[in-house]
Amino acid sequence: MKRLLVLVLLILCIIAPLTAALHISVPVDHRVYQVLANAELRGLIERQVAVRPYSADRILKLISQIESQQEKLARFEKEDIAQLKQELLLSYGKEPSSFDDVFSTGFFRTYDEEKDMGASMGARFTTLQTGSLSLRQYDSRNSATAFLRGDLGQNISYNMDFGLTVDKLNSNVFLPTEFTIPGEGFYNQLLQGGSQLRDIPGDAFYTGLTINPELSASFFDGSVQLRWGTVKRDWGPGLNNIMLSGSARTFDGIDIQIDFAPWLHYAVVNGSLAKFSLNTLDGEDFFSDDYQRDKPYYRFDNNYSGHRVEVDFTKNFTFGIYEAMVWQKRFELSYINPLTVYMFQQNNQGDIDDMIAGIDFTYQLNKTKFYGSMGMTEMNVIGNPITMLKAARNMFAFQAGFVTPLPVGTFSTLTVQWTYLAPFFYAHYPILEHTGRLEKPVAPDPFTETETSIENTYRLDGTDLYKNYRVDKYGNILWDWKLDISGETSWVMDKGRTKIEERDGSLYFYETAAETAYVNKGENLGYPLDPNSQELLVQVDLGLPKGWTAQVQAKYQARSGQYGYTVEQFMDYGDHRNYDPKEFWNNTFKHTFSLLLKGTKKLANMPIELIGSYRFTAVKERDIIGAKFDGRNDGYGLWQDPVYDHIVQVGAKIFL
User: Are 509 and 500 in contact (CB under 8 A)?
Assistant: First the structure.
């Protein structure tokens, strides 16, 4: 990583200035991307690469290209595009402002034409309140963010972004696949001795931090773009994607995007993944490290490498191929080489890292774009297509859909999309290390115990094995778990994170030293679904006059519990031949339907956006009985009555 950083800095210093514009990125959730998608379908702009975010310079050029075709725009679209351009120039341009403008724009900006350097200082405020009318629970998110951004000459732009959040987090008022944590690292209560948030739903307001720095550069009229920053990324043709999803948590990375030719595009990112310190989410162990309990034996200590090639074979057909890797932090040049093939390097490294690879395509017919994507983490059985799809060790993901412009409102679109994630997709087995040995006691010794190299204590008393046997300050005897070791010689505990073997009169302990599942800060990097799930999504995005937008979204999600239905579950490769063929619909245990109605309003001549939404949800599920670490189970309980909920959300963004 350090060598790559040095290379990037050398390029920034050596290449002569060729362009002049602001090069930092526009967030992937900005409405301008919907406008560009509509314009692309209508032929107002050329086809765009499916690697977002785009730089402000690139987006402003595309907006100007749309604006120049007045004869193809409806009256309200002309007003919409003019307002959008004004907003982007205000936020990302170079025009100086005065302190008198601070309360109307949210920032103060200066620019020195002679030195070609500028800076903007300002702040943003957001509040978002979400409540369940049925559960009588709510989630509250509030933040204040200060920023400093501007230009260093004609090629380089920077953004220093630091935020403070005051949140009361409650996952019960969101769809499980849409709940995300806005803070970085951890939450605590500053006024109560730094008491840390341990569980979600939280019982009070906690304070967290957000940090999103970015250093960006553009060369050769935008054909080469470099970015070193912590930003949301959305790579692929769909609405959220298999490789990198716009809903995923940010990570600090170095991006390189190159247009080798008008028909050949390449993008690569190398970054450092992080963790979020939390004990439980909805009563289940949170899939991340705990900053207090796990130090200094962090399991989630990973880097991320990904690259993507897009080829425009014809005017209407684009083909993409991609690879991505989650790998343990170590001195490793194989994955940070931007021109390597990860699959080969992973095999050379001993198959200890988590790799996904895939292909996708887009084909435009008239004004409708059809797209499809396939991802793969492992393929073991090759032959009949049906057999390949049903084989448990063939771990695929599929996505297909279309998007088309709607002749209503301004730059409106309809998207229909289906997504399927196979069992164990995004998962990876933990890396176990031999951490200790315990000799079985010889009579008349009552018990014996040992401490492993990662500070877990195991006590054997007769045939009962205790993990972390202890006495609290009140004299109560506690332990993490107790295991009867009679009758067997091998045991798997802690959801597969601890393995115990008996041989030669001793117990040998193997404990997890590293996790390389496809997660960052405890959340999925890819499409926001659990493995062994399907989703059908229909979404209408409407632009309306006078700063209004609206969204109507319907989702149906189904989860199957045959095996591998959470990202922390992993296949037992030593027993892979005994997994039954996949039978998705015969093993469903949860069905979720949701209908979302959402509206936003930008106030005229004021940097304020108001947000409101209503969601109806219906959930029907049944319990899974006797699930093992890989999700294989003993059966299912009875289907429960459907649970209905009505969720209301209101909020505001000030000084965008």
Answer: yes
Tokens of 497: 């994170």
The token pair at 329 is: 């932090």
What is the DSSP annotation of 128-139?
Answer: EEEEETTTTEEE
Q: What is the pLDDT of residues 538-583, one digit of tens each?
A: 999 999 998 899 999 999 999 999 999 999 999 999 899 999 999 9
Residue among 533, 542, 539 at smallest CA distance from 554? 539
Strand partners, 138: 131
Question: Using CA atoms, how far apart are residues 588 and 620, in angstroms rounded to an integer?
Answer: 10
Q: 353 is written with which tokens?
A: 């890292």
538's CB contacts (< 8 A; 6+ apart) are: 414, 415, 416, 553, 554, 555
> Checking DSSP bridges between strand 624-625 and strand 635-636, what pairing results, if any?
antiparallel
The values of phi and psi at residue 103, to 5°, are: -75, -10
- Compute how many other C-beta atoms are within 10 angstroms of the C-beta atom of residue 489: 10
List, for residues 263-311, the tens digit of each pLDDT value: 999 999 999 999 999 999 999 999 999 888 887 889 999 999 999 999 9
**Which pLDDT does position 266 carry in this prediction?**
97
19 pLDDT band, cuts 50/70/90, is very low
Residue 70 near residue 82, CB atoms below 8 Å? no
pTM: 0.91
Residue 412 and residue 38 in contact, taking contact as beta carbons nearer than 8 Å? yes
User: How is residue 592 annotated by DSSP?
Assistant: E
Q: Is 606 exposed, middle or buried (0-12, 13-18, 19+ CB in 10 A)?
A: middle
For the segment 410-467, what is each residue's pLDDT rounded down to a tens digit? 999 999 999 999 999 999 999 999 999 999 887 767 789 999 999 999 999 988 999 9
Burial 569-597 (b: 16+ CB within 10 A, else e): bbbbeeeeeebeebebeebbbbbbbbebe
Cα–Cα distance, 586 to 560 (Å, whole number):
8
Give the residue among 520, 248, 558, 519 at the shortest CA–CA distance from 421. Answer: 558
